[in-house]
Design goal:
Low-confidence stretches: 1-14
Mean pLDDT: 82
Number of helices: 21
Helix content: over 70%
Order of helices and strands: HHHHHHHHHHHHHHHHHHHHH
Distance between the termini: 52 Å
Length: about 450
């Protein structure tokens, strides 16, 4: 019996959750089938809503398959390095300690979300992995103490941290806007500093408010004290890995900390030179920052190789599906469908409501193209042009698109794959609960953009 269809797993909002879970159980397929269905839907919409013919659509789809290869590599590295970093010995020990912090079920759900959200603000790859690992750790320690936790809600709380990722250090939209030579420089004739976007007081306040509101929402949907729940059935934490045997001189090199330490220090030196010379944050710099941490934290090349091998298994699904999403992006760009979606919202916007309209537009586009950076590269210029026509500060357009991108990730299965692989669940098992996050975070985003628009 699946978790989603198990009526015993409902809590104090059973009347609301049961129809959502039932709908998800019956109609939401695997993530791979989801992207295939989306491909067909976008192709049909392109034929119906634009002047493109069948040959144009198939050509734009095929041309688009390879359109995000460089970005796909950057995203795969974010996930690979985040997974490896989360599994280094120091970070793993920290997660073990954190797993014993919450003492009650309500504390557990909210605590897992808050930690995952803070990790996502550092880098989304780390946050996704931390969310899954911490959910398992908290569940296992609670089980050992005799505390009953609803495991799907715990995993949903871990994934919900992803709802703030684009507001933080690895936010590809703000980073692209702050990078010299990016597509925004060509359009605006200047870069937009991070102080106007990612590090603006209103974005920082919005990130904090989102974390508080979603944590409260997850606490409210927690099952009642005596309600039947779906627990973690066994201690699913990773077992201790045996140390590699050191026999030959080559083995001694592989077991030496000196080599990894040298590379880590070299990366730190490079990053220091980069920022001293006026360099800015980019996706590459974010990746090299965490690569430096990994080299500094691992004990030797043996451990690093093992970490990368384990992380690679979680990257596979994304590498397979990314070209298909790139094909969808190619169809939307080649046919002009993305402009149809965006212009619909822009045409009914005012300077005060532009932020919300851009949020809704980005949320809709993200459902079809879940790559935050890829979506921003295409939709960002459209929204910036609309913002200029309406007299809206470009930073509002940038953050509205980023909010919309992270917002609908809660009901789009693509980025949940690595976390679900760690937890051993399916998207349908948690979607009813991440829908709560979708609604709570959406409220904060809309209020924020309304206030900024009015000011």
């Amino acid at each position: 019996m699946s978790i989603a269809s198990d009526k015993r797993a409902t809590g104090p909002v059973a009347a609301f959750m049961r129809p959502i879970n039932s709908l998800v159980e019956r109609y939401i397929p695997s993530a791979l089938v989801f992207v295939i269905v989306l491909t067909v839907v976008v192709a049909i919409l392109a034929l119906l809503l634009t002047d493109s013919g069948p040959v144009d659509v198939i050509r734009s789809w095929g041309d688009g398959l390879a359109g995000l290869l460089a970005f796909m590599t950057q995203m795969a590295l974010v996930l690979l390095l985040g997974h490896a970093l989360a599994n280094t010995s120091p970070v793993h020990r920290l997660l073990t300690k954190l797993g014993g912090v919450p003492r009650t079920p309500v504390q557990a759900y909210s605590f897992v979300f808050v930690v995952a959200a803070l990790a996502c603000l550092i880098t989304w790859g780390l946050g996704l992995v931390v969310g899954g690992l911490l959910a398992k750790e908290v569940a296992a320690q609670a089980r050992a103490r005799g505390v009953k936790l609803h495991f799907p809600l715990l995993v949903a709380a871990g994934y919900s941290g992803f709802v703030v990722w684009h507001m933080g250090y690895s936010g590809s939209g703000p980073l692209a806007a702050a990078t010299e030579g990016s597509f925004l420089t060509e359009q605006l004739g200047r870069t937009i500093p991070l102080g106007d976007t990612m590090f603006s007081p209103w974005n920082i306040a919005a990130a904090g408010a989102t974390i508080v509101v979603v944590a409260l929402a997850l606490a409210l949907v927690a099952p009642k004290r005596n309600a039947p729940i779906f627990e973690l059935e066994f201690d699913a934490r990773d077992t201790q890995v045996d140390e590699e045997k050191v026999v030959t001189p080559a083995d001694r090199l592989d077991a030496s900390r000196i080599l990894t330490l040298l590379v880590g220090l070299a990366l730190v030196a490079y990053l220091a030179v980069h920022f001293i010379e006026g360099g800015t944050l980019t996706l590459d710099i974010v990746n090299w920052s965490f690569l430096a941490l990994i080299f500094l934290l691992v004990r030797n090349p043996f451990e690093l190789i093992r970490l990368v091998r384990n992380a690679a298994s979680n990257v596979g699904d994304i590498l397979l599906q990314f070209p298909l999403y790139a094909g969808i992006l190619g169809m939307m760009v080649g046919s002009g469908l993305i402009g149809v979606f965006s212009d619909f919202f822009v045409n009914i916007a005012t300077p005060q409501t532009f932020g919300i309209m851009a949020l809704l537009s980005a949320g809709l586009v993200n459902f079809f193209v879940p790559s935050g950076g890829g979506q921003f590269a295409v939709q960002g210029p459209i929204m910036l042009d609309a913002a200029e026509r309406l007299g809206v500060d470009p930073s509002v357009a940038i953050m509205a698109v980023t909010y919309g991108d992270q917002w609908t990730n809660m009901i789009q299965p693509f980025w949940a794959l690595p976390l679900l692989a760690i937890a051993g669940l399916k998207m349908r098992d948690i979607l009813g609960y991440t829908t709560i996050t979708f609604l709570a975070a959406g409220l904060v985003f809309c209020v924020t953009l309304l206030i900024v628009g009015a000011g």
